[in-house]
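Lecture notes, structural biology module. Today: joint structure prediction for complexes of two components.
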Amino acid sequence: MRFSITISALLAFGLSGPALAQDEVTTVEPSGEPRPAAQTASGSDAIGRETVVGTLGGDDVGIAIPAFAADRDVSTPANASGTSALGVELARVITNNLRNNGLFKPTGPDSLPRPSFPHITDPQWSTWSSRGAEMLVHGYVRARDDGKLIVGCYLYDMALKDELARSGWVVPPADWRRAAHKCSDLVYARLTGESPFFDSRIAYIAETGPKDNRTKRLAIMDSDGANHRFITTGRATALTPRYSPDYRRLLYLSYVDGNPRIYIYDIGTGQQQLVTQSTNPTFAPRWSPDGKWILYSMAVNGNTDVYRVSAEGGPSVRLTTEPGIDVGGSYSPDGSQIVFESDRSGTQQIYVMNADGSNQRRISFFGGRAATPEWSPRGDQIAFTYIPGDFNIAVMSPNGRNFRKLSNGWQDEAPTWAPNGRIIQFFRTERNSGRTALYQVDLTGENMRRLETPVDASDPAWGPILP
Amino acid sequence: MNMKFAAIVLLAGTTSLAACKSKAPEELPPGPGPVTTAPVQAPAGPAVGSQEHFVRAVNGQNVIFFDTDRFNIDSADAAALQTQAQYLSQYPNVSVTIEGHADERGTRDYNLALAERRANAAKNYLVSLGVAASRVSTVSYGEERPVATASTAEAWAQNRRAVTVVIN
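The predicted structure, tokenised, for the full assembly:
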């Protein structure tokens, strides 16, 4: 762990400017050749698991993930010890990814023999079957003359003694972890039939200091917590970030001018501007799935309503007109509907409306309060904060049926979906101390874990699969 | 003076109607000091227009408190705001910001809206007592600035508040 942090720090140091270089990963044949256009990375005939829901821990698939082989050990900016050491790191990242979702029982490179380069495409079956592995991940890393890395990834079925999937990627050295996430996604998608989610990022609020004088900073990181970076200094309180779908911008609330206002922060340039010119407080910013629209909430004379504005600016359209608090909002994946929160009935409840504000109707009817709805990227579920007393994370269908509670904390709130709509992240506040941390849970509610962050953490916002 | 009282009674009536829909009553917030109807005497000491001068002159009633998920001005709040209005009437060059706050037992965005509602309710009350709206601004801090840090009903009652702060 200490090792990988050092690498990240070195990388962050070496990067010129804040540019993300996220659009520089090219998918290729594992040989390094360009891919035929028709080929896709994930197979459609998943074996034995149709859906994540209902999968129990008892039949975890054992996966051996030995070190990726290097054709020859050469120096690379991605690892101070060269491509051979980088091959170990790649396998460690994949092992860590696959360990943490309750589906697999991965064994990493630190307790496995190291395959040689020629054996990556010609596995030594007896070596791995004697270790009880049902699946085998092999891979290699090769430094090209232009400094970029080619990473190949192969998934083998030990019982069939056959290859299930393969892919390869060309990445700049700074993005080597993305190749490991792509390989994790290949394995996950092939074995579960679900869409990938590892190659994505998270924006959140990093918290430090005592409860009555909290410092809150906007921060971003990879889906596994790596490549962590603070965006704001903490002089002004920052809250509720949201990544734009293309990862180029962040919406968030800042008290930088003394009042709560939503800003759009450009990650490439470091510049930010107000979402709307108004002397009224604005908060609860959200993107439309295509990134063209922004929803925000604004209080005028104490009355809060939901508004929509183009991401490029211009006039705002008011979508709600009730005298109560109408706040938040999350688009359906096709952009045609918005789920939001309102206390027009007397308590916080969840409502759905058409994207133009018409046909507003309540969907939450299960006692207690219901808040912070977020529409799944798959469209089939709405995650929200369920408040029968304590605060829990729950899901329901968009018609309000099929209510299910997924967490049992004292105060769990603000769910955000993994790009594949199969995992929900949220933050948990500890009673009295006010300490906060990010957690994630799958839709069974059985696989809950904490996501480690450098300091306390709240208001997570999970972005889509990286472009 | 009669007119003023009539306005207060009217407002109090409206707000309690609006509050009918909410839940069982919570614990009452700490009681305010005695209501004074005589003009506020400027104490010797802090300069006119300073926060300290204001807080002393209103006898510590620069903070009002709210029940859970409520923003109505109850009788204790009304008395405190009346004392504040008297100060502002006596010192017409003083402007204030009312800071709205919520307790930690709410979701973040809703708490921002709720605290703004509370600050705005206090502002509207001052304006109804004759204070020019241009002299009263509001800011919502949601749940971000608690004064009591325990996770108890008592601490939450202290944090559900609107604080009047003198600006220069």
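Point to remember: Chain B has one domain: 2-19+48-167.
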